[in-house]
Amino acid sequence: MGNGYGQLLAKIQNPVRRLVKFREIGISCFLIFILCVTGCSPKDEPFNHSSLNQDFPVPKSAELQEIKEYSEEYAFKDVKEENGLPDYYRKEIERRGWIEADRLGSKYTFQNGDKKINLIILTEKIIIQL
């Protein structure tokens, strides 16, 4: 009698275990899918790129004022010379592979491989130079 009861219990528990395991796998797959969709989808980045170098970011709120062969000048209300480069802008520059190679006052020199860009921070203005 104990043996028959054990077999009956095993038959009942086996489908329940499969259902629980299937549900756990389904939830895991769903969570992975959601993370990929939210983490991998293109976001509306608050940055454009410089025409001098496509890999160097320029805040979307910066308005191009003047362009020359080796420089661009933007009106950008978020900066002041005495405050330096805003953290969010520095993080975006670094995220794109640029490292700060030198700094002299409000002039930052960033390097990415063999390419260099000078970024000059003035009050309500930025200048990007090759």
Order of H and E elements: HEEEEHEEEE
Q: Helix count, per DSSP?
A: 2
Strand order of the largest sheet: 3-4-8-7-6-5
Span between termini: 88 Å
Query: Can you give the helix content as a percent range?
Result: 25-40%
What integer is the average pLDDT?
83
Low-confidence stretches: none
Largest sheet: 6 strands, antiparallel
- Overall radius of gyration: 28 Å
Total DSSP E strands: 8
SS-derived structural category? alpha+beta
Task: Name the shape in a single word.
Answer: rod-shaped
Report the portion of residues in β strands.
Answer: 25-35%
Could you walk me through the main structural features you see in this protein, from its secondary elements to its overall organization?
With 130 residues, the protein is α+β, with helices and mostly antiparallel strands. 37% of the residues lie in helices and 32% in strands. The chain contains two helices and eight strands. It has a six-stranded antiparallel beta sheet, with no helix packed on it. A two-stranded antiparallel sheet has the order 1-2. The longest helix is centred in the first third of the chain and has 39 residues. The protein is rod-shaped. The model has no long low-confidence stretch (mean pLDDT 83).
